[in-house]
Amino acid sequence: MQRIGVFVCHCGTNIAATVDVKAVAEALGHEPGVVISQDYQYMCSESGQELVKSAIREQKLTGVVICSCSPRMHENTFRKAAASAGLNPYLVEIANIREQCSWIHKDIATATDKAIILGKAAVAKVHLNTPLSSMESPVVKRALVIGGGIAGIQTALDIAEAGFDVDIVEKQPTIGGKMAQIDKTFPTLDCAACILTPKMVEASQNEHITIHSFSEVADVKGFVGNFTVKIKKKARYVDETKCTGCGLCTEKCPMKKVPNEFNMGLDNRSAVYIPFAQAVPKVATIDPNYCMMLRSGKCGVCSKVCSAGAIDYKQQDTFIEQKYGAIVVATGFNPINLDKYDEFAYNQCPDVVTSLELERLMNAAGPNGGTLLRPSDKSHPHTIVFVQCVGSRCDDEKGKPYCSKICCMYTAKHAMLIREKYPDTEVYVFYIDVRTPGKNFDEFYRRAVEQYNVHYIKGMVGKVTPKSDGKIDVQASDLLANEQLHIDADMVVLAAAIEPDKTARPLATMLTTQMDTNDFFTEAHPKLRPVESATAGIFLSGACQGPKDIPETVAQGSAAAAKAIGLLCKNSITCNPCVAHSDELMCNGCSSCEKVCPYGAITYIDKEFRMPDRTTKVRRVASVNPAVCQGCGACTVACPSGAMDLSGFSNSQIMAEVDAICK
Amino acid sequence: MNKNLKEQVLRSGGVNVLKCMRCGKCSGTCPSYGEMEYHPHQFVYMVEKGDIETLMKSESIYKCLTCFACVDRCPRGVEPAKVVEAVRLAAVRQQGNNHLEPSEIPALLDEDLPQQAIVTAMRKYAK
């Protein structure tokens, strides 16, 4: 006979204000098997836990039901309390009467009824609970960082510093990411390359770090401490081990009309290229879409001039498989496509540019060698208009609903740099709000206004019209003066909203991590677990989790590294014992479970069975690897014969809960 | 502030003026801006404040071309042209204080005015 204890928590007024806790305890006391039913102000407090422990000892309880908050909060607390009193921790059930009841209802009678029903379901389930014991699983002492921007580099360096091996997978031919494209950084105006490239070199020289450039994650299997990742190394048609990065091939390549993505398409590169001088690894890559040898078999110049013999036109994509204990996602961001904002004439006029394009236009390694010239006629611009919030803070249909966070500061930076370098240039910034929270940020913006006399105008540009004389008519409102302005500009710079990289969504599916509606990765807790994903062993670094500037990105990169190191330091981790198991006598070997298992935990084995007539028969049956199974339950739903079941959440337990609720 | 009037304008316009983030793009894009006493962003703000009678009296409600440039470009989907249209409707629908007295007509006549317009005005405004 079961002896069940029920404990109903007030949670201060969180539960007690909406649920009549005494009535709940009283009602659940009459349930079959319940020998003690109490309420208490804070069950999670020391004295609350002591109540449970002493009840287990004195009443010889065989099961415990706690009616309290979500099991995400305190299930562990009560399991540990039960274990210390000698009860198997998996004989404790939580009825969530806070998040799923008191917080969402206003009427006390309704909420109390619902709390009683939830309690009854938990009691019905605990009747069928069986003692479970956890297993240990080893941790692979190697981390994977996906993305080689400043976030990924920082995370990799910190993990390597702790003595663990780290692999960086970067889809571009070089690491460095967006920061490598930026000219100067706010609020100190130091050169981005000068502070980034030492870190890139450090990463390439660190013996613990392996950089897989021009590579992508193709497949992820496994679970925390034991991921198996397939990495696709895309064919670059150059042998990385032989190429010395001398650059002779890029000089001699006759195909020079390829839009240079590093300079945002503002100039051209050759078909065989090294993205920029400080690229890491400094290895050439052949672009198969433009290389004449790869397209038509006629050329071969690069192969002839390469003294190292590194060119290999027959190179194929290769796949490598590696095991990791932890994975850090650092996939970063991109500016949005501006095609749908016709009013800014971005597609009609080459002198209307995005801020990232302006970075390249002003950079010494950019298309104009650092002199700011109009892309259309290479003349000096004398009037420049900046437009803020292009595609940010919009209605869902019009753009991104969030603030892109970095635009106010980089626009102040651009305006200031232009006024510093070309004092005869008039600079206008149209803003909705100037948002500058951050150390030395508002001071920086004020400097642009007070010291550099940048014209900040509260209002928005409504229409940009390229004129036949090469000027651009900017029609905008000045809300404080209550007038409509027409500015004869030479250039217009759009602060385009930023969005997560397009590779993030398929990656999230592979990693079984969550994303929000904007495709930013969701953190496990918005305040208290900001760098962990809800999936154990997957950590988040940089702008893939939300818009961030460089200092924040670096801070988060280091925080993600700290979390990954915490995991890698352990020799083994305790596995969840709530895993699937198959009843071999019922299994018909259909493979349905194997197909739906996201962790690859199910394999099929041929096993001999004794038949009633004393013969033996070999049948194909499912076998679950309990160390790999994460207890998601997908197989139990897919199994057509009902052979698959989940410990701790068995079909009979769930049906008992449903029966209790529907009674 | 006339609460009923505000309610009527919001309902007939089908707009939520609280979505406005005061960026001023509507007034930045308006081709009729120079003709208007009150500009598109002011329409949105004044309707939010309930200051609608001022707008109804202003010529601005007839200067809006209903070109919908502001509706197309508003980042927040406030649809300012629909706000202007709603105020215009409120002016047209008001009763009792907009009557045309027959005695006033001779002074208003000019030779280009079609006779039918006078008849229509009498039907519309005389009780």
Can you give a write-up of this model?
The complex is a heterodimer of chains A (663) and B (127). In chain A, 28% of the residues lie in helices and 26% in strands. Chain A has 18 helices and 36 strands. A 5-stranded parallel β-sheet of chain A has the order 10-7-6-18-31. In chain A, strands 20-27-21-22-23 form a 5-stranded parallel β-sheet. Chain A has a 4-stranded parallel β-sheet with strand order 2-1-3-4, with helices on both faces. In chain A, strand 24 (461-466) and strand 25 form a beta hairpin. Chain A is globular, with a radius of gyration of 31 Å. The two termini of chain A are 22 Å apart. With 127 residues, chain B is an all-alpha fold. Chain B has a single domain, classed as Fumarate Reductase Iron-sulfur Protein, Chain B, domain 2 (Orthogonal Bundle), CATH 1.10.1060.10. Chain B has 9 helices and no strands. Chain B has helices at 3-13, 25-29, 40-49, 52-57, 60-63, 69-73, 80-93, 105-108, 115-125. The chains are: A alpha/beta (663), B mainly alpha (127). Chains A and B meet through strand 24 and strand 25 of A and helix 2 and helix 6 of B.
Q: Provide the β-strand percentage band of chain B.
A: under 5%
Structural class of chain A: alpha/beta
Poorly predicted ranges of chain A (pLDDT <50, ≥5 residues)? none
Query: Largest sheet of chain A, order of strands side by side?
Result: 10-7-6-18-31
CATH class of chain B: Mainly Alpha
Rg over CA atoms of chain A? 31 Å
Say what the CATH topology of the largest domain in chain A is: FAD/NAD(P)-binding domain
Structural class of chain B: mainly alpha
SSE topology string of chain B: HHHHHHHHH
What pair of chains forms the biggest interface?
A-B, 23 and 23 residues
Q: Biggest sheet of chain A: strands, sense, closure?
A: 5 strands, parallel
How far the N terminus sits from the C terminus of chain B, by CA atoms, comes to 28 Å
Q: Low-confidence stretches of chain B at least 5 residues in length (pLDDT < 50)?
A: none
Shape of chain A: globular
CATH superfamily of the largest domain in chain A: FAD/NAD(P)-binding domain
Number of helical elements of chain A: 18
CATH class of the largest domain in chain A: Alpha Beta
Fraction in helix of chain B? 55-70%
Q: How many separate structural domains of chain B?
A: 1
- Report the count of strand segments of chain B: 0
